[in-house]
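Field reference: sequence -> structure
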Amino acid sequence: MITVITGENGFENDRLLRQIEVQFDGTPERIDGTELELKRVPDLLMGTTLFASKRLVIIKNLSENKSLWNEFEPWIARANDDVHLILMEQKPDKRTKTYKTLQKNATLHESRLWTDRDSVKAEQWATQEARSLGFELDKKSAQILVARVGVDQWQLFGALQKLAVLGEVTPEIIEEIIEANPAENVFNLFDAALNGNGSSVKHMLGVLALAEDPYRVFGLLSSQAFQLVALSLGEKSSAEVAKDLGAHPFALSKLAPHAKKMSRMNAKQLLALFVEADATLKSSAHDPWLLIERALLKVCLLGRLR
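Structure field:
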């Protein structure tokens, strides 16, 4: 029996592997596929031991061993029924003969990384995980948790483990206990600029500059500016715009009050401002943090003009 666990979502891959290991009555054999030699393959796929009639053999990253990966294909059909072979592959070449043969003869599990389009799925998953950890997470709390942490399952699970020891969990507790991810911090920065609060903008930028990449921060700011303009100029709800853009609905709902106050002229000015700042960042040798600060102070002026 052969199982292939593939895809870039390491959390789901590791969880599935642990489930298989728990169900196996014995000690799994772990093999580094990058160092595996062809002469060991017959024993791994066909052999049994004196101490166990069933074997669980886990080989990681075999596809990175190009020569063996190409020679592995004929051995797939010879796998002993008493050997459960697990191939852990993050990104195997699906064009190879070996992979195509595995598709026909093995059980494949392919996971993908979640994106902002999966925010609702992440909220539902967080609610279920919380219950399995012994506490309840209501809809509002789940929304705030995902907005604060993001959709990365490793980080979400770590946050849920922190919350599990508290008993009762509320949105206020989440905001106090769980550290915000960069996107949430940048939203607060953008929110301060939209409210015309220049002193807060300068302070927040100073804090972000200690640990964040300026180009990543500007990218997040630009994304939020584009979302705000889309909300302001369109006639759809924040939930509909979020679906169209693949953005987090909760994040869009926080931008909605600004969109309602923003005139069409100011929306176009905001967009032009970020286009200009983007071009300047790409072509200027000046400190990028200074350029970001200048752009946000211009946003502050727009906020005061509304």
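Note: The CA atoms of residues 39 and 68 lie 10 Å apart.
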